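Assemble and predict.
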Amino acid sequence: MYKLTFLPDGKKIEASEGSTILESSQAAEVPINSLCGGNGVCGRCRVQVADGKVRADARSMSFLSKDEIKAGYVLACQTKLDGDMEIIIPPESIPKEPQILLEGIQVQYSNPEKIQLHKVPTDPANIFDPLIQSIYLEMGSPTPNDNVSDLDRIIRELRKKTGYGSFEICLSCLRDLALELRENDWKITVTIARYANVWQILEIKGGDVIKDSYGAAVDIGTTTVVVQLVHMKSGNVAGVAGNHNPQNRYGEDVIARMIYACGREENGLSHLNNAVIKNINELIASLASEKGINQEDIHAMVAAGNTTMSHLFMNLKPCTIRLEPYVPTATVYPRVSAKDLNLKINPDGLIVVVPSVSSYVGGDIVAGILATGIADRPETRVLIDVGTNGEVALGNSEWLVCCSASAGPAFEGGGIRHGMRATRGAIEKFTIENGEVHYKTISNAKPRGICGSGLIDCLYEFARNQIIAGDGTFRIEAGKGRIIEKDGETQFILAYSPETEIGEDLVITQSDIYHLVQSKGAIFAAIKSLLDYVGLKFEDIATFYVAGGFGSSLDIQKSIGIGLLPDIDPQRIQFVGNSSLMGARMCLLSAHVARRAAHIARMMTNIELSTYLPFMDEYVAAMFLPHTDRKLFPSVTY
Amino acid sequence: MYKLTFLPDGKKIEASEGSTILESSQAAEVPINSLCGGNGVCGRCRVQVADGKVRADARSMSFLSKDEIKAGYVLACQTKLDGDMEIIIPPESIPKEPQILLEGIQVQYSNPEKIQLHKVPTDPANIFDPLIQSIYLEMGSPTPNDNVSDLDRIIRELRKKTGYGSFEICLSCLRDLALELRENDWKITVTIARYANVWQILEIKGGDVIKDSYGAAVDIGTTTVVVQLVHMKSGNVAGVAGNHNPQNRYGEDVIARMIYACGREENGLSHLNNAVIKNINELIASLASEKGINQEDIHAMVAAGNTTMSHLFMNLKPCTIRLEPYVPTATVYPRVSAKDLNLKINPDGLIVVVPSVSSYVGGDIVAGILATGIADRPETRVLIDVGTNGEVALGNSEWLVCCSASAGPAFEGGGIRHGMRATRGAIEKFTIENGEVHYKTISNAKPRGICGSGLIDCLYEFARNQIIAGDGTFRIEAGKGRIIEKDGETQFILAYSPETEIGEDLVITQSDIYHLVQSKGAIFAAIKSLLDYVGLKFEDIATFYVAGGFGSSLDIQKSIGIGLLPDIDPQRIQFVGNSSLMGARMCLLSAHVARRAAHIARMMTNIELSTYLPFMDEYVAAMFLPHTDRKLFPSVTY
């Protein structure tokens, strides 16, 4: 065993010879960035060994400058322990703290009051019909002439009160039932959930405790996990909490996590499953404690996520999702009890995962379609979710098609030299006025990097000011000294070293620009291909809903300006924030909507862009600012 | 802590001050009889303290003769430890070893080949329709044009092959499905079970393994537990094993066990539940190992037992069953998975408990009605189950009524001075010819006691030879010296001390006789009351089926002779042995029959004899040999 000290925090741990710095840090819960799951291909886990010997290795060296190598920088994932060490984790290698809710800056979670269940106009019986119902019963006590079993007495009363026919009961509800009934003078609250055409009794409690019942809506994002607690009687949101998905430590995007779950790591799947379950449990525990809610009183949970996240949540191997022909284990997930997944709500609580459409169009998109009501109205509308995978769904009450394009993590800050998520210190706004550079960071902190909305601004401002050509190549002469050559690459300095938190110039490199142009091209090409597939034009679309992590900080005009979104009246483009969470909550509050989710997932036609030949032409054409075909962007004037 | 040595085995244990000898022996798994669950009211846990001091106590003394008290006899349940002790457990206080199957003497388990599923003539679609089905599928592998999820591919193929509409899957089946399918070239065996109108997938295995699937039928008797393993494809019985219900150590009859489960013992219910689950697991393990069956391949279990046994099997508190107005927690038991009850078959295997009718008419009787086909034919028939509770069911395809009478444990050897169960050394046959006593013991061993069939013989022979009067009182003058007075009670010596295993005279006492007359009176009165209730006479009954532990060793003529069974043509009385087990197996082999069990349990009218006034008159009239009303027994000539 060797002694390791991690700076700047000074945490001391012991770790065994042969393990890597990254493995040791993960075991000790010292956070270090890792995008590729420890495979030495992303270069995000750079650390500086201040004291101790390290062996230089080829992989690490390709990510480091000569000065850095001299200064003891290594990749934590490639460096095995060979003695005691003191390790400095530089700011860019420290995962950013969750601050989503604390500062209310990044994701603008959909305002709970905005959910309109009557967005489903095709359902005439649009009553309040939650996934679980608590019913209060007052019964007479048994007599010699009426000595049916306790269970039969309850079911008889439930039939009278609800009009439903068949009931089943969970075993644990029966165990102490005799005592519960008699101690509470035959006055009880029964919580039931529908399953096929049978109602299942999940819980029986003494007295009238209807108002104690809660449900949880959960959005399991690759990057962020958000939990809402919903009061089942009123439908009101009691609280919402979110943080970064801790699976991040095993790989930053879904592909890296699939590789980790299915690769040589023996318990890879368990690590990922445990991470997300633990995270949800912690969010629930903190919300419940804050709001004075007993976790046992949370009787249901609806979770929405992409197909990989849904598999990892249910502890299913996601190993074939990324392999042609992209077949997931399941798209409709079995209903399970909370105890089956170690979720710390009522152990018999109902867990529903919103069904997926395909390997790359998941329950988050289905939930988004529920939230936007696309499948409920005759006019044709589009939902775009911008992330590492850009998903596009298109349709109306008659038909639905969808597709997904691998856009890369650029808009989430991945693969970008100083890219970061939308947290404290990220440049979120950027303009060039009269040749002067202006930026705004989140929390007005010293800049540490640049996030998605900032990158869109940059791309637009560079194009508008002719700092880059249509293909994204820097025009060095237009850079007014901010464009430099360093480490063999052209770079634009956004903020000079003295202004920044990171102690060096904060830059955008030429390859960053190319990545961004590729990403925006993939998303626009997906939208265009899907429209062409069904023979529609942009003007045929009533509304474009945009969902995704950068939400309200996204500048629509600039997004159109770089050719990410189509050039239509910005009034027809609407941000819907976290529509996945909104859809999950709608399922929780309406069994009808939950059944509709399964129906939507089944009826939606998935277009596999990788085998749809016209997509590649669209993609190539879209890798230009704003687009090779300028007629598509008449309003863009640069 | 004190040191205890138990003889004759010599087992040494340590136990703490204040616990009783019985508690200490139970903790150390040293078996000592206990009928009342340790309440000091049955006197079955007599032990002799050979070394050590004991305090005399009032309860113990009432069960012991002066000589015994002098010799150090005490009741184990009443005697608290007060120092080191050496304790001799006399033969009559040692629970008898299971030997049911080893010697094939006691219960004659229904011959598996006798089950006729077409005993259900009212079912036109009487096909082989087992509770679980294994289906072999060969599927094409996914292509870019057909890349539905693995689960959807399986369900699509299942729909084609079975014609069923809806399927659900257990979570654990999904976990490694992707690998399983691909490693087995898309050839798999799927095991499904019906639930409401959905089919649930319980297991998916590579290749064609249909022939590996087994089910278990279990009869959970208060006294005996029997397991049959059934090959699901052929319906054949692969093996059968049984032993005594180890709950016995906590109380010999259902009342004692209810008291133990609900009394001051903190984990009473757990002890009882664990005991029966462990026992069933052991029986299954030994059968599976003997027959070369993998326990994971046992996909379903149907268990039948009385209402208390069913509650204890499912770990439900049976606390209100024995209290007026006799309300059980449930009569229809939830379907659970094997893992929910720690049963060591396939963890997702389906567990079905045959529904009960009421607190004292259980699933064993419902199973018996299935096995005898009483509910399937127009002629009216009767099923009698003779045990501590005598249950009587009566009816035809149009209607069913039932009742239960507390007959006491006399016919099972309980509450009888030298009574014992039908195991090695029990007198099972007894005659008096020309004044000479003849008896036969099980295994022809030296007599240790007398069992149910022997007691019926005694009662009949005593009555026929005028050794007892009509009310059961000994006529001392007719005893030819075998009738003596000892310890203040009149006794008939069945076997003299030198012939016996127990080292003393083996006797039947006056109070034994009275207990037997009460027991037979209760059962006959129950039959008669139930017939009167529906306005029928004995001659209206096509067949009397008799089920129960003493099975084939019961002498029909003598049973009529003492007035236990009605005086009709013995051809119309038929022994059906363990009809509970037979009915459980029928449920396993036919989902139709399993649904029918629930229907029968619901449609059967339960007559509560304790509140049915005419019963008490019948009972009093029947407490005479053969009966106060001799016209009811014309063929009985003594």
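Chain B touches chain A through 49 residues (CB under 8 Å).
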